[in-house]
């Protein structure tokens, strides 16, 4: 039975106390060094800004290891998600696929149980299907999905034609679909993902919350003339694919059209092989830049040639918010109102669009300014979080009513 939240009886007799939200994340949201962490940290902070009591409980994978820190209370449990034997055995003797079993930890389960007793949350918001094994039974659970996860693996399996990827994809697909109606609600970040969840059989309430932006303060930094660039989490397979496409397919075409053009690639946690591939082409490579906004402000054009995955590209929104024009593939701009993004899927069309903007700074500036105004109206993070809190209030009230005899 869902626990009814007591009402305040003194100064505001008809007001509910602040909603308590426990957020489970697959890695530390702070510092927000990549799109996934930006998305998690920004919503958590905005929920708190809008009056909710928020606590975060995070896994702390070895390859993303950090110290728990942030504007809301946060705890972390170290884990090594590169383990093979234990997760493989667990997946064989359970209905949890191998890729999810890598995130199972007794210590983390103990912390979840402790938080449920101590914090007594009204909502448990789970930031990844990989953490669904920790979903409690007696508190409303919401899956906040940055994408339909198995769709990413489907795209990679088609491209790589790897039997292991096909196996991972198949098991993850079955698990993700089975769990859709085991949670109390789903919070995708795009209408496209919401429709996909419905088509896959989701019957529970769905509330779309796009990735929000913290509106930047005005800045006088001018872009470096003739410079295009890409930034993203470089341990994320779709971003690795995008970087290799830029290096091998796109940039030679741009240089053929505009020999003086310059390219910069930045991002967190790049694997060694990707670093070697980029640097051997003589491209300016800047891993783990300390200030992503400063990097974006220094670009004349932002590139987003995403060809796999789902969800929404927070770096596109941030580039637009900073007044920089963006050229993206159709998939790269999916999940958002892309009226101010130039769309090109063919490498020649993409190269033509980038070259035009590099040669015409005035047009690039106007396009970037229009995008910035649109993002400020439609994607302010605090406004989006306020709508989510209202959805959570209704979810808790409905669950409480439904649980009555």
* Average pLDDT over all residues: 88
Main sheet summary: 6 strands, parallel
Q: Looking at CATH, which topology of the largest domain would you report?
A: Rossmann fold
Helix content: 40-55%
What structural category arises from helix and sheet content? alpha/beta
Instruction: Tell me the number of strands.
Output: 12
Total discrete domains:
2
Enumerate the spans where pLDDT stays under 50 for 5 or more consecutive residues.
Answer: 1-14
Radius of gyration (Å) = 22 Å
What separation lies between the terminal Cα atoms?
A: 10 Å
Percentage beta strand = 5-15%
Q: What is the number of helices?
A: 14
Shape: globular
SSE string: EHEEHHHEEHHEHEHEHEHEHEEHHH
CATH superfamily name of the largest domain?
Glycogen Phosphorylase B
Assign the CATH architecture of the largest domain: 3-Layer(aba) Sandwich
